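User:
Note these tokens:
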Amino acid sequence: MNGVRDVVLRVIVTSGEGQGHLQILKRLSSPPDILMSNNHILPILYEIIFQDIIILAVPKLIFNLEDACRPDKFSNSVEDLLYMVVQAFEGTAYLHRNLIAHQDLFLNNFMVEWMPGSLAERTSMLRPRVYIIDFEVAVEFPEDSEEAERLCDKFPYPLDIYARYVAPELETNQAYCPFRLDMWQLGMNLNMAVETGLEEIDAIWLGLCAPSPKDRLDAENALKALDEYLRKTPSLYLHRELLPPKDEDL
């Protein structure tokens, strides 16, 4: 049947909880945001409302950016992976410009349309699009807010059961910047998962997860740095294997 495709159904709101999550998704999935090429939201296909439950249907994607980093699973080249990461930076920069912080910005929350696997065979001249998912703990600030006001008092997950890398500022019991937290989370995950053997790329990863939030690259500058590297570096030079990740538990 024409027009049939696999979807994922996800409960977004139940018993009144999750309205902030829904508001952010609807904002990003509505004009003019959904028309922007640098907006990497996974689009909403349709909405199901049953009593106090709201369910959203989104396109079903199988692979994520964490999968793409595994040379033992896929034949992605360093170039394949870096062009996915530059999209991750672009999508994050778009969120941050719109005063939305994700707060769980790890590689498995970036979905990938398909795996290029160009070390084995180039099956397409195009590159897969990368989408950001899982906004359940995201925060949004008003346009007229001051930078000093864009802070969070408490991390949404208890740290003693949080099975992720924990940024230094979360252990101080003080207000923190969720935008700088996003960059630390993404940078730490990249540092542990993506081994390119390229010093300039390693420097970008480390710049994202500096211990002090004020010393970290923001999303715009990370995007600019990686884009400039890709523009000046010959494709043939990047057509090489990824090294095994530092964190073997990925």
